[in-house]
Amino acid sequence: MMSSDNSPTSVATAAAIPITSTDAVGLANAQLSDGRRRMLDLVNRLHMTGVQIDIDLPQIAVIGNQSAGKSSLIESISGITLPRAAGMCTRCPTECSMSNSPKWKCIVSLRIMTDSAGQLLGEPRNEQFGDVIYEKSQVEDRIRRAQRALLHPNILRSKFLEENEEDIVDDPSAPTFSSNCVSLKISGPKIADLSFCDLPGLIRSSSGEGSAGDVEHVERLVESYIKKPSCIILLAVSCETDFQNQGALQMAKKFDPNGERTVGVLTKPDRISAGDESLWVRFIRNDVPGYILSNSWYCVKQPNSVQLREGITWEQARLKENEFFSMTSPWADKLEPMFQRYLRTSNLVERLSRILSDLISKRLPEIHKELENSIRTTRGQLGQLPKAPSRDPLSEITALIVHFTTDLSRHLEGVPQKDGLPQAIRPAQVAFRKAIRRTAPNFKPFDKSDAKMHTLARPDFLDNEEEADDDTGEKVEGTEDKSEDNAPSEPIAIHIDEVLRQAQESRTRELPGNYPYIVQERYIRQITDQWLEPAKALCDQVHVLVSEYVLRMVQEHFRDFGMGLLERQIHVIMQEHLKNRLEAAQSRIDWLFELELRPFTLNTHYMADYREKFMAHYKGARHEHSNNALMQQINSYNAPTETWSQEQTPLSKVLSGLVQVGIYGVEATDLPKLLYDPMEPALVIMADVRAYFQVAYKRFADNVPLAVDHELVRGLEKDIFDIIVSQLRIYSEADGLQICQELAEENPYTAGRREELTKKLERIQAASRELSRF
């Protein structure tokens, strides 16, 4: 046996000692500690979980060109016989897990990683293929049947186990190769603790019976293994072929350019062409430029075809191999003793065992961290997916609708947020109120011919209340400026002589000095006729705002349910409901507008107050020119702060005189009303109409937004739950359950993604549990 001393002399001496039939291949007994065996077993169990899909697990992958002697190499390592036939014999990966035990046995399993379409399964299926084998002679037939079973997934596995192979007709559409693998678990005396995966050999062109894509398929399969950083590449290179023409060597160099994880193995050394011996010896010396490997090159000698037909045993093959390297040039006489340790299968297996064990020892802490991170990440990804469908879709859909309608009621009532619905509607309400106020009649208490000579000041008594109307309590960006920009120009002026002429033309049988009420009514009708358009515009604008707001809520509440069918149906239901509420609101606006067509108010106090104020305002404006001195005194008059003053102005004397005769409440601004004016009838009409406008516009400017809010906003929640469930028909005895199931059907992508992540989580959690037990 090989000494544990790693010095070149001791290793070379040990390697030159002939192996007897009782020696074990590799480190089956004393040379591999129990700790290393446990690590190998752990990695094998991790592979059984399928976590190699997610985590880079340490593994030895055996690659080589077709007919490079790879199968013989595997047989020499494992001690079993692989299926042999013309052409390619390895049609799928073959994982071999070997361990030392008192009694020899082999368990053959199928590890299904992909479905019949070649798509990765979320979780691999490990299916034992037949009973445990206790006779080595039965392994070859079992492996051949297992490979055929993998290549024909549509045929029952039992047929390949129980029936004669000749009776099973191959499916012409079956693939030539498969990425699913045959798993061999071999244990027994004299067996090394080692695991590896034998991959199909690379081919230059597909055979006549194979698929045109065989070459690419095998290359992709091999690349999927050896591209992983923790994959040790066991590279078989035949000595009977120019090494530069062997694709496996070039592929290994592509994925391991520095040769850090490649172990080279020269096969068929008995077929070296005369004169080429020195080249292959240089490989063993590891001094071929461009092909220097950190783990060196090895050379093995396996039985030839004649010896195989004669039934040479594994033990006999090992003796023949030792005899070949001990007696054949250049290996026996031209290779320095220090390089003898790179000859023979036993030395190769020993080295592979150590490399794999060291890599596992290094990777285990890293794998532990990677698993923890992967578990955390996968749980997070699952948490981001929509909630999985429940087994009771009716209850779940009902709960969603209840939550939606409750939340809708809360938002329709108003939430204290900047982007709330009432906050969004308020600028439109303010703009509507301004639009109505701008319809005020533009009466001018001057003749039209003298209009350019006179100006009418804004009534002071309107300043406070109209400023209050403009105060919304908040500033909505862009709204105020836009409203002012879109404001119409000043209404057409109505001069006092035009009003008087209209009144005179309307007289029928009235006594002199009396004018019909129809004059005021016409002017009022001209004003109110302008109110319908802004009222409808407000209703339409609120409908747009409510629709956008509500449909956003529909999306937020239902977008993650099923395939979106429930969201779409509720979207349609809510649009129809909004349309009905819009019609109700428009009908209410029409009704309010019709009410305003005939002047009416019981607000006599405010009506009278405004009439007096406008009468004084209009008369004062007229007398500013005809009685300029008087109007200057009135405008500059300040009431005395004391009830008695030694110096009284003429104006204060007049006002105090009125008090003395019992006339109270007269102010300086009321005095112009005492003056005679031939246009008095027209002034009365103007004051009446203007006063009524102040009362009516405020009423209409309040009632319309209130009606829109009642019908279109808060009215939206009325019976909304019953409307939704009745139109969805989820409570229908006939097909309610089927409707719920259709609504709850999950998006295939989401379902597939959830299944993928769930199975991944199961894999990595299973691997984590295995690691925790270690």
UniProtKB/TrEMBL annotation:
Residues 473-485 have a biased composition (Basic and acidic residues). Residues 682-774 form the GED domain. One of its GO terms (biological process) is mitochondrial fission. Pfam families: Dynamin_M (PF01031), Dynamin_N (PF00350), GED (PF02212). SUPFAM superfamilies: P-loop containing nucleoside triphosphate hydrolases. GO terms for cellular component: membrane; microtubule; mitochondrion. InterPro entries: Dynamin (IPR022812), Dynamin_GTPase (IPR001401), Dynamin_N (IPR045063), Dynamin_stalk (IPR000375), G_DYNAMIN_dom (IPR030381), GED (IPR003130), GED_dom (IPR020850), P-loop_NTPase (IPR027417). Residues 462-472 have a biased composition (Acidic residues). This is P-loop containing nucleoside triphosphate hydrolase protein. It comes from Dendrothele bispora (strain CBS 962.96).
